[in-house]
Amino acid sequence: MIKVLLAEDVHMIRGALAALLNLEPDIEVVAEVAEGDEILPAALRTRPDVAVIDIDLPRKDGLDAAGEIHHRVPTCRTLILTNLGRPGTLRRALSASVSGFILKDSPADELANAVRGVAAGRRVVDGDLAVAAWGSTECPLTNREIQVLRMAADGKNPTDIAADLNLSLGTVRNYLTTSVTKLQGRNRLDAIRIAREAGWL
């Protein structure tokens, strides 16, 4: 029996996914969570074989949670389920050591097969998205620049970002300015838009 942790913030979708997976004779949903910061505690408590995680979750990004699982519960593989079918998002997912990445509009049987695939140790990636990612542009930002820009996208001002990351205010402003320049944005909001559309945030 493959034990699954399911992380999805929309109650109706989460319920439907759990019901679909529990219909499979070899899959059992052992935990359901709605927020990103609930994923690791649930994984430590239930020790699932596969965590099916939506990227866009409140309180903690799904990919950040997947990275935590990779380090703290290495026996649990992660399958990212999202409607953000962008090459940059796939690149982020793969760098977070996820085992699979499929789109929410995939047929229901593809989800069950993807769970089985990652549980067996295979990497499962939506075919069309993999082809698109192969020829996509690499993100020009450093990991720190992405982190700072993501915090700005979440509504934090430079002073808060500096405090959270133990950086000087000037350093944070430099990261933001460099990000705008690298992304050829008109301003910070435009840079955030460009990075989001590319799937880099």
Automatic annotation (TrEMBL):
Spell out which residues are annotated as carrying 4-aspartylphosphate. Answer: 54
Domain HTH luxR-type positions: 134-199
InterPro entries (UniProt xref): CheY-like_superfamily (IPR011006), Sig_transdc_resp-reg_C-effctor (IPR016032), Sig_transdc_resp-reg_receiver (IPR001789), Tscrpt_reg_LuxR_C (IPR000792), WalR-like (IPR039420)
A Pfam family of the record is Response_reg
Q: Which domain of life is it from?
A: Bacteria
Q: Where is the Response regulatory domain?
A: 3-119
From the Swiss-Prot or TrEMBL record, give the protein name. Answer: Two-component system response regulator DesR
Say which species the protein is native to: Kibdelosporangium persicum
* High-level lineage: Bacteria, Bacillati, Actinomycetota, Actinomycetes, Pseudonocardiales
